[in-house]
Amino acid sequence: MENLLNFIFIGRSGSGKGTQAELLKKHLEEKYGPDSVLYIYTGAKLRELVGQKEFLTARLVDEKVMKAGAKAPDFLAVWAWASRFIQEMDEKKNLIVDGSPRTILEAKMLDESFLFYGRKKVFPVFIDVSREEATRRMKKRGRPDDTAERIENRLAYYEKYVRPALDYYKTESKNKIIQIDGNPLDPELIHQNVLKAVGLKR
User: Fold this and answer.
1) N or C: which end of the chain has fewer CB within 10 A?
2) Residue of 14, 13, 11 whose CA lies nearest to 166
3) Cα 50 vs. chain centroid, distance in angstroms?
4) What is the pTM of this model?
């Protein structure tokens, strides 16, 4: 699995990292085939859990994370992607992780996982947008969970938890962060910049 490509998308809520992850998935599938990418969005896994109301964990995630706009505990975030690694990791598929890591602990566990699977080409992609632009985008998209209080909570935990994870990639991890300006209002332009930065386009 040494030559397979592995991408981690990091950024503020509202940065457009999900859009960029999906554009990259499409690019890789066009280049390598329709079943060439394992795409993992940790938020989707947690939302799926919330729908299973018979579980106490689901009810607590709904109350303390989703409705509060708070960060999920590390053990749940790791479970969200690790369970899919365990069940779906494939020696022929590239990998995209969208929405993790959000803490140093998660970043270290991802690095450890890549080492375990022998995946050496790892690209942590940081979609960098200003706090003001992220706020504007979340208000504009109008999701039910994008209330003013939850938006503020998400932006606050980014500063508290995600920034230290970015610093980890800059200073300790051998997988160095790739910083992309996410402020332009042109997703395709940002996508092209991502491709250039990771060597998929010259």
Assistant:
1) C
2) 11
3) 19
4) 0.92
CB-based contacts of 43-47 (< 8 A; 24+ apart in sequence)? 43/98, 43/99, 45/79, 45/80, 45/81, 45/83, 45/84, 46/72, 46/76, 46/77, 46/80
Which of 85, 118, 173 is closest to 3 using CA atoms?
118
Q: Cα(11)–Cα(48) distance, rounded to whole angstroms?
A: 22
The string of DSSP codes covering 79-139 is HHHHHHHHHH--TT-EEEEES---SHHHHHHHHHHHHHHT--EEEEEEEE--HHHHHHHHH
- Mean pLDDT of the residues in the chain: 93
- DSSP at 77: H
69-94 tens-digit pLDDT: 888 999 999 999 999 999 999 999 99
Helix and strand counts by DSSP (H, E) for the chain: 9, 5
Distance CA 28, CA 110 (A): 21
